[in-house]
Fold this sequence. Notes:
Blueprint: H1 2-11, E1 16-23, E2 42-45, E3 55-61, E4 67-72, E5 78-86, E6 92-97, E7 101-103, E8 112-121, E9 129-131, E10 142-143, E11 148-150, E12 156-158, E13 162-163, E14 174-177, E15 182-187, E16 197-201, E17 204-205, E18 211-212, E19 219-223, E20 231-236, E21 243-247, E22 267-275, H2 276-279, E23 316-317, E24 321-325, E25 333-334, E26 336-342, H3 346-353, E27 361-365, E28 372-374, E29 380-386, E30 389-397, E31 408-413, E32 421-429, E33 434-437, E34 449-454, E35 464-470, E36 476-478, E37 485-487, E38 493-496, E39 513-521, E40 524-533, E41 569-577, H4 578-589, H5 595-606, E42 609-614, E43 620-623, H6 624-636, H7 643-646, E44 654-656, E45 663-664, H8 686-692, E46 704-711, E47 719-725, H9 733-746, E48 747-752, E49 755-760, E50 763-765, E51 786-790, E52 800-807, E53 813-818
Parallel strand pairs: 24-32, 41-45, 50-51
Antiparallel strand pairs: 1-8, 2-9, 3-4, 4-7, 5-6, 5-8, 10-13, 11-12, 14-15, 15-19, 16-17, 16-20, 18-19, 20-21, 22-41, 22-42, 23-26, 24-25, 26-30, 27-28, 27-31, 29-30, 31-32, 33-34, 34-38, 35-36, 35-39, 37-38, 39-40, 42-43, 43-44, 46-47, 47-51, 48-49, 48-52, 49-50, 52-53
Pfam families: fn3
Protein name: Fibronectin type-III domain-containing protein
InterPro entries: FN3_dom, FN3_sf, Ig-like_fold
Amino acid sequence: xxxxxxxxxxxxxxxxxxxxxxxxxxxxxxxxxxxxxxxxxxxxxxxxxxxxxxxxxxxxxxxxxxxxxxxxxxxxxxxxxxxxxxxxxxxxxxxxxxxxxxxxxxxxxxxxxxxxxxxxxxxxxxxxxxxxxxxxxxxxxxxxxxxxxxxxxxxxxxxxxxxxxxxxxxxxxxxxxxxxxxxxxxxxxxxxxxxxxxxxxxxxxxxxxxxxxxxxxxxxxxxxxxxxxxxxxxxxxxxxxxxxxxxxxxxxxxxxxxxxxxxxxxxxxxxxxxxxxxxxxxxxxxxxxxxxxxxxxxxxxxxxxxxxxxxxxxxxxxxxxxxxxxxxxxxxxxxxxxxxxxxxxxxxxxxxxxxxxxxxxxxxxxxxxxxxxxxxxxxxxxxxxxxxxxxxxxxxxxxxxxxxxxxxxxxxxxxxxxxxxxxxxxxxxxxxxxxxxxxxxxxxxxxxxxxxxxxxxxxxxxxxxxxxxxxxxxxxxxxxxxxxxxxxxxxxxxxxxxxxxxxxxxxxxxxxxxxxxxxxxxxxxxxxxxxxxxxxxxxxxxxxxxxxxxxxxxxxxxxxxxxxxxxxxxxxxxxxxxxxxxxxxxxxxxxxxxxxxxxxxxxxxxxxxxxxxxxxxxxxxxxxxxxxxxxxxxxxxxxxxxxxxxxxxxxxxxxxxxxxxxxxxxxxxxxxxxxxxxxxxxxxxxxxxxxxxxxxxxxxxxxxxxxxxxxxxxxxxxxxxxxxxxxxxxxxxxxxxxxxxxxxxxxxxxxxxxxxxxxxxxxxxxxxxxxxxxxxxxxxxxxxxxxxxxxxxxxxxxxxxxxxxxxxxxxxxxxxxxx
Length: 819
C-alpha cells in the first residue's frame, strides 16, 4: 500500500514520464535517431491546463560516445527531468532543465541505457494528475558490436547497431496506388533489405513474392491480392526478436493473400509523337553496342556505386590535352592525347598487354548516345614510369578524322578477351580565354556585373559547364545557369546576375571585398577572375587554406542528353517495361526518385497514350482501356484485380497483335533502337542479342563492295553509288541477284563516320528530305547492284569516309569512300 501511495505522490507533482532506450558505441557514428518510445498518457482528471509528455523525442548517438537528446513540451513553463538508467541499475537524475535538449557525458561501450523524461509544471501544482504507464516489455533494446564498418554517408558505425522494431521507414512503407496496379511498398532502414528480412501480410509470409524497386533491394514491393491488406509485420532473419508491425489500412475483412509471382503486366504499349531526330536516334552502351531493351528495371536511389557493374572496372587517367594550330597538319591542328592505365597487378597487365597495336581504339562522342566518330584511330602503345609506379600509356595524335575540335570525347579501348574501357578525355584550345570587367562605375552589392570574354569562339552548344564564386569570407558557391549567370553566345558578354528584383533573382555579392570567379568550360582552359565589390556588408577577412576552388577534374559534367527537334514529327509506338515503369512511379510517389525515374514517370503520364497491355504471353494484347476500367471498377467494389486474374475473366478478350516497329524505353529514359519484335526472352532476348553482336557466326555474310562512284545530275542531289559483287552470296547468278535484292531490302540503317542515318526505302539520307531512289531507279541502270548515299551531311569531302551498313540477319558490312 505504501508503494502505491508513493507512486501516486510522484505523479501528483504534475509529472509525466517518457521512457526511451539507447545503446552507446564509441565509434564515429552517423547522427541518427536511436530510439523513440512513448506510451500514451492516460488522463485521470484535469482542473487547469494540463501537463503532457514530451513529444518529438529524438536521441542521436554521437561519435564521442554521447547522446544528444531533444524533445518538445506542451507548455512553455514545463520543466523536464532527464533520467538515465545504465543496464539494469536504477534511474539517476542527470539534468533538470526548461530547455528542449540535453547532451550527456561520455557513456560506456556495449552498455544499454534507458532514458526517461519527466515533464512537470514549475509550480508543482497538484490540482491535476496524469498517470503515465511504462511497460517493460515494450522497452526497445539495441545490441552493439565493437567491430567498425563504413556506412552509406561515409561515417563509421558499429556492426549490429540495428534498432529492434526499426527495420523499415514507416513514412515510406505503405500501399501505393499506380492506377493500373497497387503495391505494398516496403522501404527498409539501416542494413536491412528484402534478402535479410521476412515480410508477412495479414499473417501470410509473402517474402518470396517481393520484387526489387531499388538496385540494392532497400525498397521492395508486393502486389495486392484481391483486397486491401490490413497489417504487415517485418522480421529480421538474423534475429527473430527484431520485429516491426505496420498498419496498412483499417480493412477489417482483408483476405489472406496467396503467394503468387509474376501477377502484374509485363509490357505496356503506347504511342506518342517523336521528332524524326529522336525516332531515328541510336543509343550505345559503354561497350559500343546498340541498346534495344533496358538492362535492369530497378533504380539506384541512393546514388551508390554499383559494385557488380564496376567489378573489374579499368582505372585510367587522361590529363587535359591542348589543340595546337598547325598549318602543316592535314586538318590544320595537332596535339597529343595521353591515357594512362594502372599496370601493377596481373589482371591490369593482362588487360593492357592485350590491347592490339592497331584498330583497338575508337573515338566516341561525349553524350548519352555514344556515337562512334572514328573507329580507326592511330595511336602508340607503351609502358612508362609515372611517379614511383609503372603505367600503361596510350598516345593518340590529335587532328585525325573527326578528331579536330577542342571539346570532351570518350576513347573506347578494346582489350582482346576482356571488357572494353570507355575513358573520358578533354581537349582544350591552347590559348587561354581572356576575361575583363566591362563596367563604368564602382561595383556595388546587388547590381549585375558584366564581363567580356575573348578567345572563346564556340558553336551552337553552350561550352560553360560550371561556374563558381568565392566570396570575401572564403565561402564557395556553385552558380546556376540563367538564374545566376548567362553568356551571350559568341559575343563574349558574360553577366553575373545580382539583381533581386529579377524574377527568381538573388544577390551573389552581398559583401564588400574581393571575389574570385571561376569558369570551367568544355574545350577551353579554366578562366579565373578576381574582382572587388566596393559597397556591401562588412565581413571579417581571413585566409583559410582549406578553402579552394575545384580544379578541372572535380567539375561535374554530364554528357549531353537525348533530344533534338526539327525535321517534323512522327507518331511512334513506344513500349514500356511495366516493372520498370511501376518502380519509377513508386519511387516518385514515396519521394525517392532519381532523375531517371522521374523522367520515365513523366514520359508515361504526359507524353504518350496507352494502347495495349501484355502479360507473359507477348503474342496476346489486351485493350488498355478495358484493363484499366476493370481494375477501377473492382476498386470501387472494395476489391483488387491483378492483371493475372484479369486475363482469366470470361469477359476479357485478347487479340493477336504485335506492332511492326517500336522503340522501348530504357532505364535512363532514352529510347532503344527501332525493332519489330519484343519479349522473346529475358532482357537480352534473342532478337536483341543478335542485333547487339556483330561477331555472331549465325549471321549471313554481306555482299562485297566493288566500286563507289560519285554521281551529280542537274537539279538532283549529289549521290554516291555503291556497287556490289554478289557472287559470295550464291554461285548461281540468278540466285545471287535475288539474294542481293534481299540484302538491300534487309538494310535497316547506314553509319557514316560514326553517325547513323535513317532508312528511307532503299535510300539513305542525313536530312530526311523526301527525294529518294528505288531499287529499279533509272539512275542505277535498273540493276539491283547499288546503294545510294547522299553527299549532303553524310559523305565529307577531302577525307576518308568510313561506312557501316547494318542489315537484319547479316554481319555488318564496312568499307571506305575516299573523296
